Amino acid sequence: MAKKTASLLPDTNQLLIDFGERLKLARLRRRLTAKQVAERAGMSPMTLRSLEAGGAGVTIGAYLSVMQVLGLESDLNRLAAEDDLGRQLQDSRLIKKSHSERLSVSPAKASRRNAQVSSSIKPDKSGQWVERPITASAPEKKPQAKTSGATSASLAALLKPNKKS
Description:
The longest helix is centred in the first third of the chain and has 20 residues, at about 10-30. The model is unreliable at about 110-120 (pLDDT under 50). The protein contains 7 helices and 3 strands, in the order ααααααβββα. The termini are far apart. It is about 50% helix and about 10% strand. It has a 3-stranded antiparallel sheet, with helices on one face. β1 (about 115-125) and β2 form a beta hairpin. The chain has helices at about 10-30, 35-40, 45-50, 60-70, 85-105, 105-115, 150-160; strands at about 115-125, 130-135, 145. The protein is elongated. α2 (about 35-40) crosses α3, α2 packs across α4 (about 60-70) and α5 runs parallel beside α7 (about 150-160). With about 160 residues, it is mainly alpha-helical.
């Protein structure tokens, strides 16, 4: 008896169905029969039918075997290559760490930094990215400007040490 797989959310299931359809179209464009692709991929025609229908029970190895037969295996490198959300979360933690390090400096260094003001971009309660000023003595609570989405370059620029004037 086959193992039962975890059920997918409807949107995720639709992605899998769309992927199966794209593989079927790629097979048809190459004028290959289902039987030919199944034999070359080392699976039964029934498994290929399930794969082309977006079956969640088909292993990723089976999908990759079909992609290899169709000459599309390098497309796997594109999956999850750009992780914008992960990078924003990572940058947010780095900024927070940088801010706490700045506040834990010696009193002599803190007095030199009192005049310097930098800003931090963090998500507010609604999930919008808001730029907030940071000072070495006491952070101001009032947001200065809202941004529609921080880029990794703008977040990385905040991590650079302030130049002494």
